[in-house]
Amino acid sequence: APAGRAVGEGSPGGSGRRVFSPAGEFREFSRRQLRDMERLFRQYDAGKDGFIDLMELKLMMEKLGAPQTHLGLKNMIKEVDEDLDSKLSFREFLLIFRKAAAGELQEDSGLHALARLSEIDVSTEGVKGAKNFFEAKAQAINEASRFEEEIKAEQEEKKKQAEELKQRKAAFKELQSTFTQ
Protein backbone atom coordinates (compact mmCIF):
# COMPACT_ATOMS: atom_id res chain seq x y z
CA ALA A 1 0.00 0.00 0.00
CA PRO A 2 1.29 3.51 -0.73
CA ALA A 3 2.67 5.40 2.24
CA GLY A 4 0.04 6.72 4.61
CA ARG A 5 -2.76 4.41 3.47
CA ALA A 6 -4.14 1.61 5.57
CA VAL A 7 -3.78 -1.94 4.31
CA GLY A 8 -6.75 -2.97 2.14
CA GLU A 9 -8.20 0.52 2.23
CA GLY A 10 -8.93 0.78 -1.48
CA SER A 11 -8.32 3.76 -3.69
CA PRO A 12 -8.72 7.26 -2.28
CA GLY A 13 -11.51 9.52 -3.37
CA GLY A 14 -13.77 7.66 -5.76
CA SER A 15 -15.36 4.90 -3.70
CA GLY A 16 -16.45 7.06 -0.75
CA ARG A 17 -15.86 4.13 1.60
CA ARG A 18 -14.91 5.04 5.14
CA VAL A 19 -11.37 4.25 6.23
CA PHE A 20 -11.13 0.88 7.95
CA SER A 21 -9.85 1.13 11.52
CA PRO A 22 -8.77 -2.28 12.86
CA ALA A 23 -8.52 -0.99 16.43
CA GLY A 24 -12.01 0.48 16.24
CA GLU A 25 -13.72 -2.54 14.74
CA PHE A 26 -11.76 -5.44 16.25
CA ARG A 27 -11.80 -4.32 19.87
CA GLU A 28 -11.47 -7.87 21.17
CA PHE A 29 -7.80 -7.81 20.14
CA SER A 30 -5.00 -5.82 21.74
CA ARG A 31 -2.90 -3.38 19.74
CA ARG A 32 -0.04 -5.88 19.87
CA GLN A 33 -2.24 -8.69 18.46
CA LEU A 34 -3.45 -6.39 15.66
CA ARG A 35 0.14 -5.39 14.85
CA ASP A 36 1.16 -9.08 14.74
CA MET A 37 -1.75 -9.84 12.41
CA GLU A 38 -0.86 -6.92 10.16
CA ARG A 39 2.79 -8.02 10.07
CA LEU A 40 1.67 -11.54 9.07
CA PHE A 41 -0.68 -10.14 6.41
CA ARG A 42 2.03 -7.90 4.92
CA GLN A 43 4.52 -10.77 4.96
CA TYR A 44 2.32 -12.86 2.65
CA ASP A 45 0.93 -9.99 0.55
CA ALA A 46 3.63 -10.64 -2.06
CA GLY A 47 2.02 -8.32 -4.62
CA LYS A 48 1.93 -5.51 -2.00
CA ASP A 49 -1.56 -4.62 -3.26
CA GLY A 50 -3.27 -4.80 0.14
CA PHE A 51 -4.81 -8.20 -0.59
CA ILE A 52 -3.90 -11.86 -0.21
CA ASP A 53 -5.01 -13.67 -3.35
CA LEU A 54 -5.36 -17.40 -3.98
CA MET A 55 -1.68 -17.95 -4.88
CA GLU A 56 -0.43 -15.89 -1.92
CA LEU A 57 -2.74 -17.86 0.40
CA LYS A 58 -1.43 -21.11 -1.14
CA LEU A 59 2.16 -20.04 -0.37
CA MET A 60 1.17 -18.92 3.14
CA MET A 61 -0.46 -22.25 3.98
CA GLU A 62 2.55 -24.17 2.60
CA LYS A 63 4.94 -22.05 4.70
CA LEU A 64 2.76 -22.62 7.79
CA GLY A 65 3.04 -26.36 7.13
CA ALA A 66 -0.63 -26.96 6.24
CA PRO A 67 -0.80 -27.07 2.42
CA GLN A 68 -4.32 -26.94 0.99
CA THR A 69 -5.92 -28.16 -2.21
CA HIS A 70 -7.02 -25.56 -4.75
CA LEU A 71 -10.63 -26.14 -3.69
CA GLY A 72 -9.64 -25.92 -0.01
CA LEU A 73 -7.99 -22.53 -0.61
CA LYS A 74 -11.08 -21.25 -2.47
CA ASN A 75 -13.29 -22.37 0.42
CA MET A 76 -10.99 -20.63 2.94
CA ILE A 77 -11.36 -17.35 1.06
CA LYS A 78 -15.11 -17.86 0.56
CA GLU A 79 -15.68 -18.24 4.32
CA VAL A 80 -14.56 -14.66 5.08
CA ASP A 81 -14.79 -12.96 1.65
CA GLU A 82 -17.49 -10.38 2.39
CA ASP A 83 -17.09 -8.36 -0.81
CA LEU A 84 -16.89 -11.52 -2.99
CA ASP A 85 -13.72 -10.43 -4.82
CA SER A 86 -12.08 -13.86 -4.26
CA LYS A 87 -9.18 -12.41 -2.27
CA LEU A 88 -8.63 -11.36 1.33
CA SER A 89 -8.43 -7.73 2.38
CA PHE A 90 -6.78 -7.03 5.74
CA ARG A 91 -10.24 -6.67 7.32
CA GLU A 92 -11.31 -10.06 5.96
CA PHE A 93 -8.01 -11.52 7.17
CA LEU A 94 -8.81 -10.23 10.69
CA LEU A 95 -12.20 -11.95 10.48
CA ILE A 96 -10.33 -15.29 10.43
CA PHE A 97 -8.85 -14.52 13.85
CA ARG A 98 -12.17 -13.18 15.17
CA LYS A 99 -13.88 -16.43 14.14
CA ALA A 100 -11.01 -18.45 15.65
CA ALA A 101 -11.29 -16.57 18.95
CA ALA A 102 -15.06 -17.08 18.97
CA GLY A 103 -14.64 -20.81 18.28
CA GLU A 104 -16.56 -20.48 15.00
CA LEU A 105 -14.06 -22.35 12.80
CA GLN A 106 -14.34 -26.06 12.19
CA GLU A 107 -11.39 -27.98 13.64
CA ASP A 108 -10.47 -29.49 10.27
CA SER A 109 -10.85 -26.28 8.23
CA GLY A 110 -8.00 -24.47 6.52
CA LEU A 111 -8.85 -21.24 8.35
CA HIS A 112 -8.60 -23.04 11.69
CA ALA A 113 -5.16 -24.32 10.68
CA LEU A 114 -4.11 -20.84 9.55
CA ALA A 115 -5.20 -19.25 12.84
CA ARG A 116 -3.57 -21.99 14.92
CA LEU A 117 -0.28 -22.16 12.99
CA SER A 118 0.17 -18.38 12.69
CA GLU A 119 1.28 -18.37 16.35
CA ILE A 120 -0.80 -15.27 17.03
CA ASP A 121 -2.49 -15.80 20.37
CA VAL A 122 -6.14 -14.86 19.85
CA SER A 123 -7.40 -15.70 23.31
CA THR A 124 -9.72 -12.88 24.28
CA GLU A 125 -12.41 -12.23 26.83
CA GLY A 126 -14.43 -10.52 24.13
CA VAL A 127 -18.03 -9.33 24.13
CA LYS A 128 -19.15 -12.81 23.04
CA GLY A 129 -19.19 -13.98 26.67
CA ALA A 130 -21.32 -11.08 27.89
CA LYS A 131 -24.69 -12.32 29.21
CA ASN A 132 -26.62 -9.21 28.31
CA PHE A 133 -26.46 -5.81 26.69
CA PHE A 134 -25.32 -3.97 29.84
CA GLU A 135 -22.54 -6.41 30.48
CA ALA A 136 -21.47 -6.04 26.85
CA LYS A 137 -21.56 -2.25 27.20
CA ALA A 138 -19.46 -2.37 30.39
CA GLN A 139 -17.09 -4.71 28.56
CA ALA A 140 -16.77 -2.25 25.66
CA ILE A 141 -15.97 0.57 28.09
CA ASN A 142 -13.32 -1.62 29.73
CA GLU A 143 -11.90 -2.47 26.31
CA ALA A 144 -11.66 1.23 25.43
CA SER A 145 -9.92 2.09 28.68
CA ARG A 146 -7.56 -0.87 28.23
CA PHE A 147 -6.69 0.51 24.78
CA GLU A 148 -6.06 3.94 26.28
CA GLU A 149 -3.85 2.35 28.94
CA GLU A 150 -1.85 0.54 26.26
CA ILE A 151 -1.41 3.79 24.32
CA LYS A 152 -0.39 5.66 27.51
CA ALA A 153 2.08 2.92 28.39
CA GLU A 154 3.60 3.17 24.91
CA GLN A 155 3.82 6.97 25.20
CA GLU A 156 5.38 6.72 28.68
CA GLU A 157 7.96 4.28 27.32
CA LYS A 158 8.83 6.69 24.49
CA LYS A 159 9.11 9.61 26.94
CA LYS A 160 11.37 7.53 29.19
CA GLN A 161 13.59 6.59 26.26
CA ALA A 162 13.79 10.23 25.12
CA GLU A 163 14.67 11.35 28.66
CA GLU A 164 17.38 8.69 28.96
CA LEU A 165 18.82 9.78 25.62
CA LYS A 166 18.83 13.42 26.78
CA GLN A 167 20.64 12.46 29.98
CA ARG A 168 23.22 10.42 28.07
CA LYS A 169 23.85 13.36 25.72
CA ALA A 170 24.22 15.75 28.67
CA ALA A 171 26.62 13.35 30.41
CA PHE A 172 28.62 13.02 27.19
CA LYS A 173 28.82 16.81 26.76
CA GLU A 174 29.97 17.15 30.35
CA LEU A 175 32.60 14.50 29.78
CA GLN A 176 33.63 16.20 26.53
CA SER A 177 34.02 19.57 28.23
CA THR A 178 36.44 18.13 30.81
CA PHE A 179 38.70 17.04 27.94
CA THR A 180 38.56 20.37 26.05
CA GLN A 181 39.61 22.56 28.97
Key structural traits:
mainly alpha, calcium, 181 residues, elongated, AIF-1_EF_pair, 2 strands, EFHD2 protein, 2 domains, two-stranded antiparallel ribbon
Task: Please provide a written account of the structure.
- The chain is mostly helical and 181 residues long.
- It contains seven helices and two strands; from the N terminus they run ααβααβααα.
- The chain has helices at residues 22-25, 31-44, 54-63, 70-80, 90-101, 110-117, 133-180, and strands at 51-52, 88-89.
- The radius of gyration is 22 Å and the shape is elongated.
- The relative contact order is 0.11.
- Residues 1-5, 8-15 and 125-131 have low confidence and may be disordered.
- This is EFHD2 protein.
- Residues 137-175 form a coiled coil.
- Residues 32-67, 68-103 form the EF-hand domain.
- GO terms for molecular function: calcium ion binding.
Query: What's the CATH architecture of the largest domain?
Result: Orthogonal Bundle
Distance between the termini: 54 Å
Structural class: mainly alpha
Q: How many individual helices?
A: 7
Largest sheet: 2 strands, antiparallel
Q: Average pLDDT across residues?
A: 82
Rg calculated over all Cα atoms? 22 Å
